Amino acid sequence: MMQSYREHNIQELPLSSPFFRNKAERFLGENGLRLEALDVYCVIENEEGRILAGAGIRQDIIKCISVAEEARSEGLVAPLVSHLISLAASRGISELKLFTKPENQAIFESLGFHVLASAPKAVLMENGRGLERYCAYLRSKREEGRCGVVVMNANPFTLGHRYLLEQAAAQVDTLFVIPVKEEGQCFSYDERRAMLKSAEKNQFSAALDKQSHVVVLEGSAYQISAATFPTYFLKDLSDAAETQIRLDLDLFQHHIAPALNAEVRFVGTEPDDALTNHYNTIMRELLPEVVEIPRLKISECVSLVQSEEKWFFELPHKKYFSSDGDDAVSASAVRAALAEGHCSEAAALCPETTHPYLMAALADKALRMELDLPGKPGLVCPDSCGAHMDMDYGTMLRGIEALRPFWSRMALAASAEELRQLGIEAESAMMAATGGVNTHRGAIFCMGIALNAASRFCQLPYNEEDMQSALGEIAGRLLRNQLEDKTIAKTPFNGARQIAAEGYKQLFEDWLPFYRQDQDALKTLLRIMSILDDTCVVKRVGAERAQEVKQEAARALEAEENYFSCSSPKNQFSSAGKELCDKYAAEGISPGGAADMLALTIFIHSIIS
């Protein structure tokens, strides 16, 4: 006779362990399911250690619910789900959602869940009132007259997105824009919504008829995406996209649109992406009124921008678009250009209001490139803590992640005082993320100045002369404010002040040209170390030893030049370079200032190349 579930303990299965992960995969596979990404997976086992039932959570979604065939009469789902609800509550999540097969709907209704959306092969359920609250928020934003809706990812917001919104808004009295609330993209939800809000304020008013206006709303968890929709219970993965689309549109049709009193949904045409095109097809099938707007082409984009007397310098590189300009403006191509560090290519197809966010992405990329370099003498890298006992790769990465939201704000700072305050806030956020470890204080200073200089005092396409002058101007204003404040004068920026006030002269005259030769970051680091008076080194081992470090870096660079001339792999040190790493780690020498300057060099290269 099967034991009652009350005689079984609910325990968490550590999926980070290959053994337990394989065990979970076998259990789910035996029951026709697949393991998906989970934060926690809890199980009930019998005395022999065989899993009888399991369920997990990913953020606020319950996933991977399954019960072994021999235990399906034992009521094991209820204790598991109750346990997950309590576990989520302890983590500050008061409401949970789940996707399940329609035939399981009654089971979860008995556990306090109710249906939000239905499709032939799945239902979306929730145990709280989150959707009700969101719809109440939408109702508070209602406007008179004919209203339309655009649901937009804007990752990032391009001239094509702006064109779509302007064309849609011309056909209604009010156009509501709902940004997709999904993380894990190139640009965060907060950044994407901020781009839309900036465009709403600065771009649309001049282009729209005064009787029409655009309202950017808050996004929600009630736009279903591939990131949130689970596929573990669908036998055929080809069903996943269709089911996701139908659930999303069911939510929109029966909840979102009525809350806004919206009559029409606007979308851009999608001639190339089969999935998006299929979404549009199902949308036309299910919704009462759908208007498709042809996407803006590159050739039209040139005419549009020139007619507005805005900047535009050249068609994007043929690597990202065809040479005749017949391709549609694409956010994916903008992201591809950013991934390769080409700011001008990316910015060419974005409104000026998007540019600070593009530069923020490149600042983040530069810091990650510096961190990811292996074999840096005395510095943290993926496989070594260098000379540091208080930080490792994970600590540094958390510091970088904490700083990302501040880069666009620094680019947009209207004064030196605002920039200084943002620097203080960024440092606090970094310290909170790293447990009080200073990972990037120097980077906050130099990168903040560079972002603000590029955004406020330079125009695309950037050139070295304007950029150097702007850097010196911003640094001078910032440092004057610091010197007047004795509390700020105590911060460890002294070594960086003179370099910044000179507009990073050495960077433009030496480090940047050196890096441009073959974009070898490790050799560039040695070059910087051989020239820079690095106060990080001085504070650790004194001024005399710091001068010796410069000389050692110069000799190591010469050795590396000979090593690399023999067709050795780029960005990998020779045995002499590795000896320098071992030596500095043993002596506690960490050229953190040089690391900051390397990241800044990479960033400057990306925006003016």
Labels describing this entry:
disordered N terminus, single chain, 609 residues, Aminopeptidase, globular, 4 domains, 7-stranded mixed sheet, alpha/beta, Rossmann fold, 5-stranded parallel sheet
Can you describe what's shown?
The protein folds into 4 domains: 5-94, Gcn5-related N-acetyltransferase (GNAT) (Aminopeptidase); 132-293, HUPs (Rossmann fold, 3-Layer(aba) Sandwich); 298-347, no CATH class; 352-608, Triphosphoribosyl-dephospho-CoA protein, CATH 1.10.4200.10. It has 609 residues and is α/β, with parallel strands linked by helices. The strands form 2 sheets. A 7-stranded mixed β-sheet has the order 1-2-3-4-5-7-6, sandwiched between helices. Strands 10-9-8-11-12 form a 5-stranded parallel β-sheet, sandwiched between helices. The protein is globular, with a radius of gyration of 28 Å. The protein has 25 helices and 12 strands. Helices cover 53% and strands 11% of the residues.
Please outline what is shown here:
The chain is α/β, with parallel strands linked by helices. It is built from 25 helices and twelve strands. The strands form two sheets. The protein has a seven-stranded mixed sheet, sandwiched between helices.
Show unreliable segments.
Answer: 1-6, 304-318, 486-494
CATH superfamily of the largest domain: Triphosphoribosyl-dephospho-CoA protein
Shape annotation: globular
Kindly, what is the distance between the CA atoms of the first and last residues, rounded to a whole number of angstroms?
74 Å
Counted up, domains total 4
